[in-house]
Amino acid sequence: MLSLELGKKTDVNEASLGELFTHKAYAATRIEATSLGYHDFIQTILRAYKEEQVHQNKFVFYHGCEAFVGFYFDLVQELRDQLFHEAGEDIRLLRAFDDLFSAENVLAMLQEEGKIQGIDDFARIDNYRGKFQDKALSANISLVGSPGHATSSTYFLFYKGQSVNAAQVEWMVKNFTVKFGCPESFPAYRKIYDQYINKKEPYDNGRLLQIFIDGSVIDDVCYLSLTHGKMPFESDASNLGAKLAEFKPSVLLTLLRENSTKFLSQLQAIGGLKNITIESLQSRLYLKPEIFWDPSKVMIKTYWRHTLNHDEQMAYKRDLKAQIQRDLSHWLKSRKHVDKGTFFQKKLPLQEIYKKVYEKNHGENSYPAAVSFSVTDLMSAFKTDDVEKLKAIIKDHNLDIDKELVTPDSWPATSIEMAERFNAFKCVNLLLEYIYLSLIRDEYIRIQGQEDVFKESNIYSKKRKAIDWRDIGKAVDTINDDRVRQTAIEDVKTAANLDEKKVVAKAWISIGTIKDDHIRQTARRKVLAADKDDKEDIATNWENIAKALETINDDRVRQTAIEEVLKENDWYLQLDKAKEWVSIWEIIKPITDTHLQAQALEAIKKTKTHTRQTVARTWVNIARIDDAVIRQAVIQDVFNKTGGSVQEAASKEWVSIWEIIKPIADKNLRAQALENIKTAPTDEYDDLYKQYIAQAWVTLSTIKDENIRKMAIEDVGNYPADKKNEVAKLWVTLTRISNKDIREAAIKDCKNETDAFEKQDTAKAWVTIDSIKDERTREQAIEAVKAAGDGFAKVMAAERYVKK
Question: What is the pTM of this model?
């Protein structure tokens, strides 16, 4: 496979090339070459390889596709050749019309597409979304690019005669026939395709495009990509231009040819992607018509998987040319002008030539101007029964006014006057049919509608179908987001029949208003799975659900709410469930800790509906405790209790306790306090019982001497809750005695007292002694206090010596 490896040019013998290629292709894709005409395939590959050698001064790209896509390319080229009075063997353009190519270059195209797809990061751009496929082509930078990747490998797609998302090409052909006023011609094109191209034996046909691009324009129409057209780097709209400048194909692909190892290392260094390989690298080509039309800048060589012999090729070209001539002849006679911007060229030479020939035969300035009518003209003709003018209006819109029409039995057909009225009425209905369809913005829906209406022979059936398709188009057009609207169109496409399409389209009027992607996709799945009669109601219901849930601006909570809504079996109860979760969100919104919020959500989910808001309030209370250790202990304590109201009350109490003990700086002491408060027996007659204990611990925490604090804690534990803080304050008072001997005597004396009031008086007496400066007097006071009977007597004795 050396001859075909990326960037390498060698002189390997052609005879061995086939074997090497097939071996590598088989290993990469597990295709069985022997059953699919392997010899012809290899010969085609060799022809492409030789062509590459001839044009080494160009950058080469490859695209493999299925047979009908390849046929479409021929149709496009023949159409353009006849319109612009040119001829050539090679394909030059890959799209029939140019109205989507306003972007100046690939950078502008990507920025435009980013807006359509609603993305900021171009590493997430997707060539299957928005209008990407209409404007760009997926290509590999080598015949063997993307090996083993069935949706990206050029040689695999060519080998198997397959395309990715090729179904849309059929309606692209239909779009051409409608735009030129010949929708009935599509079967003729299909017949040509089936006769010459659609070969199934001995293998499916396919087509290989070999695209040579000149270095002067390569950076304007190409960017290097990964699968799905994604950028090999993260980039937003503000720095996309700078990133593309770093990844210039002209620089990197030149380096690839010269030194593939250096190319890869530089690619990884620029993109910061260590896992990128040459094989995984692809490209996307912006099919700018002004550039692709110029053969000095772009050359496209094509190869059929099933090669036509000379006679078949001539017959194929003759029949395709003749059919396009018939359609363009019909178009020229109708004096229609295509919409501005349909082609990048300002004039259509074929139309100019036809005009000159016409005037040569009929006289100068005899070519009739294109007729154009306004709505005012239509209304005027209808009011005055101007049948001739109505006929002219109908002709201007390519409608058949001569088709037989069955007159309703109730219509007095014998009356000449009424018959003329009926004729006018017929014309108006035919015109309205066209107007209804022409107002549809989406090409697929418009073309399908025109095809469907065209099949009807009865004028009333035509009008009804036109109105139905108009309503479908209007429904889809209410969706402003291009990406969302495209999804709606896909759902309409897959609906089984017109009635189903109408229902799905109407449902999307509601679904399309949903901003949240996940909710919208959920609603879509539910609507598509529902019975026809319920689809619209379910869509409206989900629209209301979305409006409710979109007020929840936390992703996890909203996701939980969606899951809970979906658990509701009856869809008409789901809105109530959504409103319930909105109320819950309003309660738990203050919880900012994500882990705690997750715990709260789980607890709420496990709770019965009628107590969920109570549980939510409980968790909000718990969240106000900003010490993780204490909070966890509180959670255990609160939820060991039974009953939502009991738990909520307990959480409130703990918040109050936390506000009290928060000033305790020592975490170990705070944990000790918490344990003491938790294990304290509940006083059913005093709601502040535990708060008293908490206050005592705050007071005790101010005692700096650890030994004294231990004694104080032990002593405080012996007293009722409402006395604890007073005793704690007494111990704080003892620590203020400056004389160590007096302080120790005071502590010993106070410990011996069991009554809180007696203890307070005792402490007061010793503090008084500490204030006596004269040592002899102080000694006498100590003896007097020790000899006193009770606390009051001790105070009096101490104060007597102060006076001395």
Answer: 0.48
